Amino acid sequence: MRRATLALGALCASGLASAQTSAVQSPATGSSVTVFGIADVALGYGSGSIASKTQLYSGGNSASRLGFRGIEDLGGGMAAGFWLEAGLNIDDGTTGATNVNNQPNGSANGLAFNRRSTVSLMDFWGELRLGRDFTAQYRNRNDVDPFSVNGVGTNQAQVGTIGGPTATRASNMVAYFLPPNLGGFFGEVQYYMGENPKPSFNEDDGNGYSARVGYANGPFAIAVAGARTQFARSGSTGDIDTVNLGASWDFQLVKLMGGYYRDKVKSLPEVTGTGYLVGAIVPVFGYDQIKVSWSSYGTDAPGDPTARKWAFGYVYNFSRRTAAYATYARVSNSGGSAVAVNGGITDANRSASGYDLGLKLSF
């Protein structure tokens, strides 16, 4: 029973991976509305030279969420769609925070479809998407991370990024995605707005644009992305420029992944962050997975503070919807860096470690 169920799950997962790579919500005949989500909770522990912490938290393997999506067939190959997706904290029942203006002062709480809230128009020419969504530069951190930037094993380039409020998502976005039938080529361009009054000192804060282009066909995938988000220049803020590259190759016995990340904040003085990732996913018994990654992220601030992380994980799939997992990570710091994991606290240049033990259910 487990074999048959997981075989179906593998097909579903393959389809989801393809959709994520192209990032296009495909038109379908007829109309439909789907309720979907993930409930993921982990017991996390982190220790450092100063303090340790044990906590129950949400999203150790996949970010917990509740979503609604729909497609309306408009005829002639054209379709309209919507996608509303809210982050959930399973450990305490709260919802995730959002950012209304792509700026540090735009954080808001309460029931929020903070993960994604978009409407789309789709046809043979691709997809026009409006609302709040992932930024193009984020996808190259997520798609090549064995841990999908979740939990204690998260890519250090995601943990330490100096990419600012739009490093992962942006609000007030207008985006275009290429159609998914281009022989493996995919791409997107985005423009997002901080929506500040003009004239004002910070009238351009939170405005930005990003783009990504790539190729995914068979076992091989590669993509490059770039972005700029504008902020008034000061001792701690300034325009943020990002460029990154992600690639993967699935050899069936093992899937290898790699990424390069570079962020520059044009503050006074300018600061540049650079990161790397090498990772692998190894299928076990055809159903389960061993995950391993090495990632690093550091800046050229005085001392060149840098954090380097090893992460190891195992995912046991009870079925196509339910999985248990365990992850261990260890961070080493240099140049004045004091990064820890799972709420632990460590001294500069000291190591820190932690683990997750969790259960995930998808619906």
Describe what this molecule looks like in 3D.
The protein has 363 residues and is mainly β. It has one domain (2-362): Porin (Beta Barrel). 9% of the residues lie in helices and 52% in strands. The strands form two sheets. It has a 16-stranded antiparallel barrel. The longest helix has 21 residues, at 2-22. The protein starts with a helix and ends with a strand. The model is unreliable at 1-22 (pLDDT under 50).
Protein topology:
Elements: H1 2-22, E1 32-47, E2 52-58, E3 65-75, E4 78-89, E5 94-95, E6 98-99, E7 107-108, E8 116-123, E9 126-134, H2 136-142, H3 156-159, E10 169-177, E11 185-192, E12 208-217, E13 220-229, E14 240-250, E15 255-265, E16 271-284, E17 288-299, E18 306-317, E19 322-334, E20 352-362
The domain tally reads 1
Using only C-alpha atoms, the radius of gyration works out to 20 Å
SSE-based structural type: mainly beta
CATH-defined fold name: Porin
**Spans where pLDDT lies below 50 across 5 or more residues:** 1-22
Helix content: under 10%
Query: Could you name the CATH homologous superfamily?
Result: Porin
Would you report the number of β strands? 20
Kindly report how far apart the N and C termini lie. 19 Å
| Helix/strand order | HEEEEEEEEEHHEEEEEEEEEEE
The largest β sheet comes out as: 16 strands, antiparallel, barrel
Name the shape in a single word: globular
Mean pLDDT: 91
CATH architecture: Beta Barrel
